[in-house]
Structure to design on (514 residues):
C-alpha cells in the first residue's frame, strides 16, 4: 500500500469513527425533556423490587430463606439489554424511596407510602455488593445511560404513618389530631403543603428540594409526580423552578387527567392538568386509560384532537403519555384479552404521544397473584397478609418477576416499534387526520408528513366483525402502498379501503408518493 492510499484509508477511518462518535453523543446528549416534548420517549415503568426477582419455586413470593432473590438496582442491570431490544429508551422507576412499615399494606410496604424523602429504599440493595445503596443506584443509572436509556423517578404524593410519627408537622390532621387519610388510600397520609408565602420556608418544601437534589446527583433525568393534582400550583411552580436551576433540562411528568375533576378528598387541594402544565410540567397522563370505555372513533378523535389543541397553547412544548395501561389500571388482558392488548400496542405506536408500558404487559402478564390475601409466613411490616390489587402489578410485596411464557405481545410490539422507528417523522411530527368511514365502531386515522403516511384501521368491536368502507387520503395510482399488518382480503376501490374486519382486527399500511 503506497503512502497516499494509507493516508486516504486512515482519514476515512478517522472520519467514520468521528461520525459514529458524534451520532452517539448526539443521541446521548438529547435530554429526556426534549425527547418527551417531541414524542420520542418510549417509556417502560418498572417496580425494581420485582423487575428481576428470582422466584425459584414458582409460588409467586420471593423467599430469601429458600435462596430466592428480590429485584435490586444491581440485578436490574441484567435486563437492560432486553429493554433496549424492545425499543425502550426511557425507564420510569416506581418509587425508590423507603416504604412505611406501620399501618401498612402488604408484607414489603406500599411503594407509595413514603417514609423518608432523603434516603433510598434499602429493599432495593444488593446485599452482596460492597457499594452503598446510592452507589448501586448510580451504577444502574449509568448502565441505563450507556445504552441510551433515560431514567425518570417517581415522587410519591403522600407519606407513610412512619413519617408522621417522626415529623407530625408535615401532615394534615383530622378533628382528633390524627393524620388525615385521603380518599381510600389506607396506606398513606395527606401532606400539609402551604399555599402562600410560607411555602418556600416550610419543612415539606425543603424535603422535596432534598429529594430533587438526590435525584439529580444520581443522574436521574426527571420525575413523575404521583397524583400531582393534590398539591397547589405555587408548590409545583416553585419546585420545578428550583429543579431547573440545578439542571435546566430536568423533565417533569404529572399524573393528572381530564377525567379527574374533583379533589381526592375534602382536605386535599385540586390543581387540574391545565394549571399543572402552566406550573412547568412538560406533560401529563391524559385520559387514554379511558380506552376501555371508548367504543367509537368519535371518542378517540375527541381525546387526540383536544390534547393537540390544548398543548399548542403553551410557549414551552408539552406532551402526553399513552396511559392506556398503568400500574393503577387492571391488566388489558383481563379487560379484553390479547387482541385488546394488541390494539393498545398499535395506538401507542402510531398516535401523537409518548408510548408507555408497565413491566409485564408486553410479556402478557394478567397480574393475578395466587397468594392474594393469604396469611404470610413472614413480613417486614405490621401487615401479616399478602395484600394486592388483583389484576394490577404488585406494589405491596416481594413478589415474582412480572411476565409469562408468551411472546405474542412482545413480538407484536417489535413490529409496531419498528414501524415507528422507520416512520419517526410521520409519527412525531405528522398531522393526525380522522378518515371518513361508514362505521363509527372503526378507529380509522392517518398520520402524514412530507409525502409519507401511516394509515391505521382498527375494529374496536372485540366481539363482532364489522363491514367497513374507509376513504384514505393522499393516494393515487403512483402511490407505493406497503401493508405492515394484516392485508389478507382487503381491497381498494380508487381511494376507498373496503373490508370485512374480524373482531379487534388491526390493519396498518404506509403510503409513499413517488
Amino acid at each position: 500500500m503506497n503512502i497516499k492510499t494509507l493516508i486516504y484509508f486512515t482519514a476515512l477511518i478517522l472520519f467514520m469513527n468521528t461520525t459514529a462518535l458524534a451520532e452517539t453523543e448526539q443521541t446521548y446528549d438529547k435530554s429526556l425533556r426534549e425527547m418527551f416534548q417531541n414524542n420520542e420517549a418510549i417509556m417502560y415503568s418498572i417496580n425494581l423490587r420485582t423487575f428481576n426477582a428470582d422466584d425459584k419455586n414458582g409460588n409467586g413470593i420471593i423467599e430469601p430463606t429458600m435462596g430466592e432473590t428480590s429485584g435490586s438496582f444491581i440485578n436490574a442491570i441484567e435486563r437492560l439489554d432486553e429493554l433496549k431490544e424492545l425499543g425502550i429508551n426511557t425507564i420510569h422507576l416506581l418509587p425508590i424511596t423507603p416504604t412505611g412499615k406501620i399501618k401498612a399494606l402488604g408484607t414489603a410496604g406500599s411503594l407509595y407510602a413514603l417514609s423518608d424523602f432523603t434516603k433510598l429504599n434499602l429493599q432495593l440493595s444488593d446485599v452482596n455488593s460492597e457499594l452503598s445503596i446510592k452507589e448501586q443506584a448510580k451504577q444502574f443509572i449509568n448502565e441505563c445511560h450507556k445504552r441510551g436509556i433515560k431514567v425518570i423517578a417517581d415522587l410519591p404524593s403522600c407519606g407513610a404513618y412512619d413519617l408522621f410519627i417522626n415529623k407530625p408537622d408535615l401532615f394534615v390532621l383530622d378533628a382528633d389530631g390524627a393524620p388525615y387519610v385521603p380518599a381510600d388510600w389506607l396506606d398513606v397520609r395527606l401532606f400539609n403543603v402551604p399555599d402562600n408565602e410560607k411555602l418556600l420556608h416550610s419543612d415539606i418544601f425543603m424535603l422535596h428540594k432534598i429529594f430533587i437534589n438526590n435525584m439529580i446527583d444520581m443522574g436521574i433525568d426527571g420525575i413523575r409526580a404521583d397524583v400531582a393534582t393534590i398539591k397547589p400550583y405555587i408548590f409545583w411552580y416553585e419546585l420545578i423552578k428550583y429543579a431547573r436551576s440545578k439542571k435546566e433540562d430536568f423533565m417533569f411528568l404529572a399524573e393528572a387527567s381530564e377525567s379527574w375533576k374533583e379533589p381526592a378528598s375534602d382536605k386535599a387541594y385540586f390543581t387540574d392538568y391545565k394549571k399543572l402544565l402552566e406550573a412547568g410540567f412538560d406533560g401529563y397522563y391524559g385520559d387514554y386509560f379511558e380506552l376501555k370505555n371508548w367504543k367509537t372513533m368519535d371518542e378517540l378523535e375527541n381525546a387526540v384532537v383536544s390534547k393537540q389543541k390544548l398543548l399548542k397553547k403553551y410557549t414551552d412544548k408539552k406532551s402526553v403519555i399513552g396511559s392506556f395501561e398503568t400500574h393503577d389500571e387492571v391488566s388489558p388482558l383481563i379487560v379484553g384479552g390479547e387482541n385488546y392488548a394488541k390494539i393498545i400496542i398499535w395506538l401507542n405506536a402510531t398516535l401523537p404521544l409518548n408510548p408507555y408500558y408497565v413491566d409485564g404487559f408486553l410479556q402478557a402478564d394478567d397480574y393475578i397473584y395466587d397468594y392474594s390475601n393469604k396469611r404470610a409466613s413472614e413480613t417486614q411490616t405490621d401487615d401479616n397478609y399478602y395484600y394486592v390489587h388483583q389484576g394490577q402489578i404488585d406494589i405491596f410485596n416481594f413478589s415474582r418477576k412480572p411476565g409469562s411464557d408468551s411472546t405474542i405481545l412482545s413480538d407484536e410490539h417489535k413490529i409496531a416499534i419498528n414501524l415507528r422507528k422507520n416512520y419517526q417523522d410521520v409519527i412525531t411530527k405528522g398531522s393526525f387526520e380522522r378518515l371518513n368511514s361508514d362505521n363509527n365502531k372503526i378507529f380509522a386515522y392517518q398520520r402524514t408528513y412530507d409525502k409519507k403516511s401511516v394509515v391505521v384501521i382498527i375494529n374496536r368491536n372485540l366481539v363482532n366483525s364489522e363491514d367497513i368502507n374507509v376513504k384514505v387520503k393522499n393516494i393515487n395510482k403512483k402511490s407505493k402502498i406497503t401493508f405492515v399488518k394484516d392485508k389478507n382480503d382487503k381491497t381498494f376501490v380508487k381511494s376507498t379501503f373496503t373490508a370485512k374486519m374480524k373482531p379487534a382486527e388491526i390493519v396498518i399500511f404506509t403510503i409513499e408518493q413517488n
